[in-house]
TrEMBL record:
<feature type="domain" description="ABC transmembrane type-1">
    <location>
        <begin position="108"/>
        <end position="296"/>
    </location>
</feature>
<keyword id="KW-0472">Membrane</keyword>
<feature type="transmembrane region" description="Helical">
    <location>
        <begin position="112"/>
        <end position="136"/>
    </location>
</feature>
<protein>
    <submittedName>
        <fullName>ABC transporter permease</fullName>
    </submittedName>
</protein>
<keyword id="KW-0812">Transmembrane</keyword>
<keyword id="KW-1003">Cell membrane</keyword>
<feature type="transmembrane region" description="Helical">
    <location>
        <begin position="156"/>
        <end position="179"/>
    </location>
</feature>
<feature type="transmembrane region" description="Helical">
    <location>
        <begin position="224"/>
        <end position="249"/>
    </location>
</feature>
<keyword id="KW-0813">Transport</keyword>
<feature type="transmembrane region" description="Helical">
    <location>
        <begin position="278"/>
        <end position="296"/>
    </location>
</feature>
<feature type="transmembrane region" description="Helical">
    <location>
        <begin position="32"/>
        <end position="54"/>
    </location>
</feature>
<dbReference type="InterPro" id="IPR035906">
    <property type="entry name" value="MetI-like_sf"/>
</dbReference>
<dbReference type="InterPro" id="IPR050366">
    <property type="entry name" value="BP-dependent_transpt_permease"/>
</dbReference>
<keyword id="KW-1133">Transmembrane helix</keyword>
<dbReference type="Pfam" id="PF00528">
    <property type="entry name" value="BPD_transp_1"/>
</dbReference>
<comment type="similarity">
    <text>Belongs to the binding-protein-dependent transport system permease family.</text>
</comment>
<dbReference type="InterPro" id="IPR000515">
    <property type="entry name" value="MetI-like"/>
</dbReference>
């Protein structure tokens, strides 16, 4: 004879085992946007790193006799040091006889380096400013008004002014592009801190007299990592594009340095007759920015709490 207790249905938790949540890295890699964007970006980075072994020559080498060759032309390259060798000009040459293929691959090094460096610079300083503004109430008004003042300055105008004052070196260009992006990152981190610092576990840590630095690092900062990574991808894409704009306008890195903006700037005068001088670096620039943005969208869908249920 069974009792009513024995006949009672099992609780839902006991009848149906809880669904095991997949590790975060698996959910990230399962996202097709991350796969596609990340794969294209990795290929472009590897091409830049392996540029010396991918059929390139000195990107700054000039041969007036090989000027304005069409893509796919095989001819002799006469360098200024007297060396002559046969070379396949995959993407043709510019008006000075420089190999576009070589300049484009070496330009990938510069553009991607700028993008990653600006993103890291923005993440570090944006995190520091956002944590201070969001956690210390007395600093909030002062710090955020300073950030609002920086945001009021157009990024391109700030970069042009800074490069004009201090010269177009790589560190100066990275700094000039990164500074206008810091307030956006700081506001993002501050918003996360404002929502987390009122949580019971943070108040309990304060009540237990936990050091402030430990509260910030162990309880608050982990909540800001995901949105920062997402925002960092967009900062990286923006930095690559801004660097190309500055170089195209002639106020970025020196003209003799192989960057996608410099290549397009030098080819625009003869674009009607020789469009390949602008077309190929433009394609590489578009692919890089697009791949970073696509990867950022995939990371947002996976890491953002509003979207991550799609991958479960």
């Amino acid at each position: 004879m069974t009792s009513a207790l024995d006949e009672a249905p099992l609780p839902v938790e006991a009848a149906v085992p809880a669904k095991k949540r997949r590790p975060l890295w698996k959910r990230v890699l399962d996202n097709w946007s991350v796969r596609i964007g990340g794969s294209v970006l990795v290929v472009l980075i590897l091409m830049g790193i392996a540029a010396p072994v991918l059929g390139t020559i000195d990107p700054g080498a000039i041969d007036p006799g090989s000027a304005n060759l069409l893509p796919g032309t095989r001819g002799e390259f006469n360098s200024l040091d007297g060396n002559t060798f046969e070379h396949l000009f995959v993407m043709g040459t510019d008006s000075l006889g420089r190999d576009i293929w070589s300049r484009t691959l070496y330009g990938a090094r510069v553009s991607i380096t700028v993008g990653i460096a600006v993103a890291l610079f923005t993440l570090v300083f944006g995190l520091a400013v956002g944590l201070m503004a969001g956690y210390f109430r007395r600093l909030d008004g002062i710090v955020m008004r300073l950030m609002d003042g920086v945001m009021a300055i157009p990024g391109i105008l700030f970069a042009v002014s800074l490069v004009a004052l201090f010269g177009g070196t790589l560190p100066i260009v990275i700094f000039a592009i990164a500074v206008p992006e810091i307030p956006r990152m700081a506001r993002l981190v501050r918003a996360v801190v404002l929502s987390v610092r009122e949580e019971p576990y943070v108040e309990a840590a304060i009540a237990l007299d936990t050091p402030t630095w430990k509260i910030l690092l162990k309880h608050i900062m982990p909540n800001a990592i995901a949105p920062m990574i997402i925002q960092g991808t967009y900062v990286c894409a923006t930095a690559i594009l801004v660097e190309a704009i500055l170089s195209f306008l002639g106020v970025g890195l020196p003209a003799e340095m192989a960057t996608w903006g410099n290549i397009m700037a030098e080819g625009r005068a003869q674009f009607n007759q020789y469009p390949h001088n602008v077309l190929f670096p433009g394609i590489f620039l578009a692919l890089t920015v697009l791949s970073v943005n696509v990867m950022g969208d995939g990371l947002r869908d996976t890491l953002d709490p509003k979207f991550n249920k799609r991958g479960e």
